[in-house]
Amino acid sequence: FIAFFQTYRGGFPCDNVFVCSVQVNFVACQLFALLMAVWFRLYLHPSKTSPFIRHVVATLLGFYLALFCFGWYSLHFLMQSGLSYSVMVFAGLEHMHKYCFIVTLGYLILCQITRVYVFDYGMYSADFTGPMMVITQKITSLAFEIHDGKKSHCVRMPSLLEYLSYNCNFMGILAGPTCSYNDYMAFIEGTGYQPRHQENANGKENGKYKQSEPSPKNDVISKLCTCAISLFIYLSLCKLLPVERSINDDFVNNTPFHLQVIYLYLAMLALRPKYYFVWTLADAINNAAGFGFNGYNKDGSPRWDLISNLRILDIEFATSFKLFLDNWNIQTALWLKRVCYERCPINPTAATFLLSAMWHGVYPGYYLTFLTGIVMTMAARAVRHNIRPYFLVSDSHKRIYDVITWACTQVAISYTVVPFVLLAVGPSFKFYRSWYFCLHLLCLLVVVALPVKSRRRQAKAQQDGLQKDSLQENQTEHNSTDNNCNQKDKAT
Fold first, then answer.
1. How many CB atoms lie within 10 A of CB 88?
2. For the chain, what percent of residues have pLDDT higher than 70?
3. How much is the average pLDDT of 71-95?
4. pLDDT of 47 strictly over 70
5. Tens digit of each residue's pLDDT (9 = 90 or more) over 113-147
6. Are 210 and 197 in contact (CB under 8 A)?
7. 296 φ, ψ to 5°?
8. What separation in angstroms does the CA of 26 have from each of 35, 173, 443?
9. Which one of 297, 329, 347, 478 is the catalytic residue?
10. Handedness of CA 272, 133, 44, 143 (dihedral sign)
């Protein structure tokens, strides 16, 4: 592996040998986890061994990979899990989710501050807080699931072994993705197939789809091919199209603005395959272990996308800011929706973006990106609500609208995430100044000129309208009944 990656040394976005070796360790561990996942599914199948053994093996392998990649820093994974488990045990059900959220996220932020500002500022790649971000999602998701399901008893308090297995199993310890605790327990116990057989078996409830366990082989091979293509593209193009060139004085002064826009889009396009590689490989590992089955397609083929983290084609051809975000880091978006957006009483969009920035880390570039994302989301929502209906009159008009919004979305996303890549305040503001903050100003103008009700207000107004219609119908029925009674009285 080291020889292979040294051949493509120039493909990495840094020249630090230590960081490159960490990336090599990460890839080697993930490939080892892939082999272990196949072994886990074949030789520790639920029909052959108990859930206890599966929990123990999954947890021990996870700790081994963590120690190999991060050394004794991996003890933070145990500390974070232990603190949150103590909160869940000793806190009451009414406030457990809040305390668990504060303690877990606070511990993550403390580790991020220590790593960035005390030890190695700028060492963005493969740090030990990366797995802690996923563990934070799992811990808080479980706490909210227990709180929300306390009346229906749909989620029980896990044992310590089950808890550690859920947080630190070898399939998701390095790159996730986040999953539901109930789904993970169903996978360990071997009960995850039956409900989806009955619900999504294309009507063949008594056929072969219900009786046989689907194989993930084809999906794993397909995802590994996607990984190989993504890695090749990333290593080939990343050095040729660095994002940092966008703030180079010679480039800014001597390049026409429209070419700067095209270059920025291509630079971000070359950067995304790194994430495609990491998340698709993580998904393939879980599938190889037998985790991720999500029913069947209409043609009867099994779907293994229960915990998939991205949809590449939907990302690259997204026609709105929201569509892009909905298909990028899907499990994190669902986590943010469950723990923040659906619960925040005041301005949930801004609160969700702020939580996302805090969860990602303490680099100023993250906050600049997500603050910009708030304005972009509001502007995109206003455009969609006010302008899109005029283009739905015919298919040709809609295609024109889709092409325009695709181009605008790609430029807007690229513009927004530049600070996420540059990390520091100075370079980020230098980039935005070179663009004269044009998209910030344009979005603010759109928000002011095209006001739109929030979705929560729209839903409330719609609900009020339904209630009003229901009251009117009841009143009409009541009046009709009264009229009938009066007519009977008169006849008498």
1. 22
2. 81
3. 91
4. yes
5. 988 887 765 444 447 899 999 999 999 999 999 98
6. yes
7. -125, 150
8. 14, 11, 40
9. 329
10. negative
Encode pLDDT of 371-419 as tens digits.
999 999 999 999 989 998 989 888 899 999 999 999 999 999 999 999 9
For 56-94, give the DSSP string. HHHHHHHHHHHHHHHGGGGHHHHHHHHHHHHHHHHS-TT
* The pair of three-digit structure tokens given for residue 405, joined into one six-digit string: 């919004």
pLDDT tens by residue, 158-180 = 999 999 999 999 999 999 899 99
User: 372 to each of 92, 232, 242, how far by Cα in Å?
Assistant: 38, 31, 22
Q: What is the pLDDT, as a whole number, of residue 199?
A: 54
Residue pLDDT, tens place only, 410-444: 999 999 999 999 999 999 999 999 999 999 999 99
- Asked whether 242 and 267 are in contact (CB, 8 A), the reply is yes
Tokens of 335: 């986590």
Burial class (CB in 10 A: 0-12, 13-18, 19+), 403: exposed
Structure tokens at 172: 């998701």
**Residue 56 and residue 61: Cα distance in Å, rounded?**
9
Three-state SS string across 419-431, please?
HHHHCCHHHHHHH
Catalytically annotated residue among 147, 360, 385, 479? 360
Q: Which structure tokens are listed for 181?
A: 């605790």
Cα 255-259-262 angle, rounded to 5 deg: 145
Spatial distance between the Cα atoms of 13 and 2, rounded to a whole number of angstroms: 17
Whether 329 is catalytic: yes
Q: Can you give the pLDDT at residue 5?
A: 37
The label of the residue with tokens 């923040």 reads: 340
Cα–Cα distance measured from residue 247 to residue 124, given in angstroms and rounded to the nearest whole number: 20
pLDDT value of position 115? 86
Query: DSSP per residue over 16-35, as a string?
Result: -HHHHHHHHHHHHHHHHHHH
pTM: 0.85
Looking at residue 118, the DSSP 8-state letter turns out to be: I
Q: Is the dihedral of CA 120, 123, 124, 125 positive or negative?
A: negative
Closest by CA to 167, choosing from 237, 97, 85, is 85
Q: Judge contact between 139 and 80, C-beta under 8 A.
A: yes
Q: Are 360 and 366 in contact (CB under 8 A)?
A: yes
Q: Give the pLDDT of residue 351.
A: 94
Distance, in Å, from the CA atom of 146 to the CA atom of 148, rounded to the nearest integer, reads 6
Q: Does the annotation count 258 as an active-site position?
A: no
